[in-house]
Amino acid sequence: SYELTQPPSVSVSPGQTARITCSGDALPKQYAYWYQQKPGQAPVMVIYKDSERPSGIPERFSGSSSGTTVTLTISGVQAEDEAEYYCQSADSSGTYEVFGTGTKVTVL
Amino acid sequence: EVQLVESGGGLVKPGGSLRLSCAASGFTFTNAWMSWVRQAPGKGLEWVGRIKSKTDGGTTDFAAPVKGRFSISGDDSKNTLYLQMNSLKTEDTGVYYCTTIIDNGDARDYWGQGTLVTVSS
């Protein structure tokens, strides 16, 4: 089955930049989406279609794509950005969707 | 205002069945692709399955662990999405969310509050 691989954790100081990668063979063909989830809450989409940001999401969140890897960048990290982040995409046929393994972002 | 409200979770024995509901409002239900996502306790998000909009064929797809046991349907007259879960296993335990993305040039995601399903003897 198709898998998306993320680093388990990323630690960053306030004001610095956090980068979270997501790797998958079908990413050159399928869009990626990024979700933020805080404990006890439903996820919130912070990036869609690789690099689009929904209205209401702070500009410090951005997304990029290169080959089989997509990256979520949080510039000028704030304490409130501490959360679990998941990428999501589909297999090459677009039939089956999958979430990445998740990355815990810790703000030091 | 878009709202998704799940119901139907609870405790069920292995091998049993359960039907979850997701009442939708604030958007055109018949035009939306709707998905179910679950999260086992302390674990990550897992895509369960999806139903395409009627205009896109209304077909369903499921993740391998639930294929053949789960089904998704919608009642357009009630703006309600269903997840029928049969032959439940202990590993199906978790919080189940219904979710959709509405893209009118500026995409927004919407999630229900989640409903807990516990499969245990």
Which descriptors would you attach to this protein?
heterodimer; A: 108 residues; B: 121 residues; mainly beta; seven-stranded mixed β-sheet; 11 strands; 0% helix
Give a topology summary.
The complex is a heterodimer of chains A (108) and B (121).
Chain A: E1 9-12, E2 18-23, E3 33-37, E4 44-47, E5 61-66, E6 69-74, E7 83-90, E8 97-99, E9 103-107
Parallel strand pairs in A: 1-9
Antiparallel strand pairs in A: 2-6, 3-4, 3-7, 5-6, 7-8, 7-9
Chain B: E1 3-7, E2 10-12, E3 18-25, E4 34-39, E5 45-51, E6 60-62, E7 70-75, E8 80-85, E9 94-103, E10 107-111, E11 115-119
Parallel strand pairs in B: 2-11
Antiparallel strand pairs in B: 1-3, 3-8, 4-5, 4-9, 5-6, 7-8, 9-10, 9-11
Which class of secondary structure composition applies to the elements of chain B?
mainly beta
Number of helices of chain A: 0
Our measurement of the CA-to-CA distance between the termini of chain A, rounded to an integer number of angstroms, reads: 36 Å
Major sheet size, sense and barrel closure of chain B:
7 strands, mixed
Folded structure, characterized:
The complex is a heterodimer of chains A (about 110) and B (about 120). In chain A, strand 5 (about 60-65) and strand 6 form a beta hairpin. Chain A has strands at about 10, 20-25, 35, 45, 60-65, 70-75, 85-90, 95-100, 105. Chain A starts with 8 loop residues before the first strand and ends with a strand. Chain A is about 0% helix and about 45% strand. Chain A has no helices and 9 strands. Chain B has about 120 residues and is mainly β. Classes of the chains: A mainly beta (about 110), B mainly beta (about 120). The interface of A and B includes residues 42, 84 and 99 of A.
